[in-house]
Design brief:
By secondary structure, this protein is of the alpha/beta class. The protein is built from nine helices and eight strands. Helix 1 runs parallel beside helix 2, helix 1 crosses helix 8 and helix 4 packs parallel to helix 5.
Amino acid sequence: MGRLEGKVAIVTGAGGGIGREHALLLAAQGAHVVVNDIGLRTGADAASVVAEIADAGGTAVASTASATFDGADEIIQTALDSFGGVDILVNNATAGAMNDLWEFTDKQWDFTVGVNVSGYFATIRAAAPHMCRKGSGSIVNTSSGSGFGHPAMIAYATAKEGVIGLTRTTAKEIGRFGVRCNAIRPFATGVSTAEYAKDAGSWMRVMTLTMGPEPGVESHPDFDPEQFPARKISPLVVWLCTDAAANINGRTFHVGGDEVSLLSEPAPERTVTQPGGWDLDGLDASGLGAGLTNPFTLNSFPELKQFAG
């Protein structure tokens, strides 16, 4: 028997890529899986993933409803109608536009935030009552390292960091019912940075210099994409849905290649106190900003000058 024998799992965006790997591994561990995908990406096909699961001896059904406000209730209802409940929700569906922030359109913004934040909230809202009544359940949300800052993808970066706040709040609100909610920041790719740069163009140089918690530490342009396949993401996601992770709630993990990291939660870096409150001169003298520098300047990265318009 698998670790999730008889559980009912929903995976959004599971018609290909990382979501497909989640669905396959959940099914291999005994879960009945709702494979959800609208087929937006080239080659994404929920029905084909269901067929793969069936061929391997598992149980799954396809859902092509949109993982947004429009389709969330239908996705959860598919699980209820097909398998009688819902125990696991993996929010994996994602989409994002790329543009200079001053060129970003309302439509691009709304589309990106709608899928990555509103859509995740919508599926959680639809699934949570069923989990809470049962007194158990696991939700895994997909954030991204883009949330640390991702030039040219301001809506995606904003949305994916919003997923972290959504995860923390969900964990605190429904944890009392035995339902837990965690997030991952996955990294998987089928191409090297150099190959991706052919499509992303000059923005790749900006992104590799400025993304992540260590500005200026550039991603190596020739890493081996075979070391970062989608299948290496799924064991952590499935593990978070098992009893082995019963005490993990409201936390965020980075996962990619051979590494898994439990990320720290935000904490004060330095604190200053002034009886009666602060004024500007007092803050000047407080030392609050001592030693801090702005790493995102043209002086720091002369390469950015061509994008300074």
